[in-house]
Amino acid sequence: MSKKVLIISSSPRKSGNSEMLADAFAKGAREAGHQVDTVYLRQASYGFCKGCMACHKLGHCVIQDDAREIATRMHDAQVIVFTSPVYYYSISGQLKTMLDRANPLYDSDYAFTKVYFLTCAAEDEPSTPEGAIKAIQGWVDCFDRCQFVDTIFAGGVTEPGDIQGHPALEKAYEAGKSLT
Q1: What range defines the domain where residue 83 resides?
Q2: 3-class state of residue 30 by DSSP
Q3: Alpha helices, H only, 32-76
Q4: What is the pTM of this model?
Q5: What is the H or E stretch that residue 171 is in?
Q6: Residue 79 and residue 82: Cα distance in Å, rounded?
Q7: Total domains, the chain
């Protein structure tokens, strides 16, 4: 059965390593017959959450910017794939801000049931992505019907394109291809 997959790429660099991981996942998912949509946060214009909690009454954020439309796309997707480089042992600021702005989804009848996380870093220690994984897991834990399925990490990549030939690319492709 075909799924609606939304990839949210938070790399500030076009064709960066985490974006290449997202491309591999998307290719596998498309080949498996899924509908894939990608949002590039570097192309979006959105601000910080104000903490006003009006979204719980209105069902959407009071700030009229690109985050409202992205949150709607998140709401309607069955699978969400977050991609982020590891910055200071956590997710990018762009992704953290978008997760905060997705607060209206909390009380909604969202469609997503699965979340994947694709990440990369210059460091290649197995513990490198732990803080970033914890940030994504914390968001997923707020949604009872949602499961954090997998993290795919590519360590030892710094410059755009360093990921070429990295085993994480094949893992991302296979994860997309094996979506159920």
Answers
A1: 4-177
A2: helix
A3: 55-58, 66-76
A4: 0.96
A5: helix 167-177
A6: 10
A7: 1
pLDDT tens digit sequence for 80-131: 999 999 999 999 999 999 999 999 999 899 999 999 999 999 999 999 999 9
Look up residue 42 and give its two tokens: 């570097």
Residue 180: the pLDDT is 87
Q: Which amino acid is at 85?
A: P
Q: Distance between CA atoms of 147 and 112, rounded to whole angstroms?
A: 9
Closest CA to 120 of 80, 149, 162: 162
- Whether 59 contacts 104, CB under 8 Å: yes
- CA–centroid distance for 175 within its chain: 14
Residue 163: which of 43, 83, 97, 44 has the closest Cα? 83
77, 109 Cβ separation under 8 angstroms: no
Angle between helices 130-140 and 93-101 (to 10 degrees): 10
pLDDT reading at 134 higher than 90: yes
DSSP string covering 64-133: -SHHHHHHHHHHH-SEEEEEEE-BTTB--HHHHHHHHHTGGGTTS-----EEEEEEEES---TTTTHHHH
Distance, in Å, from the CA atom of 172 to the CA atom of 77, rounded to the nearest integer, reads 19
The CATH number linked to 171 is 3.40.50.360
Q: Model confidence over 46-89: pLDDT tens digits?
A: 999 999 999 999 999 999 999 999 999 999 999 999 999 999 99
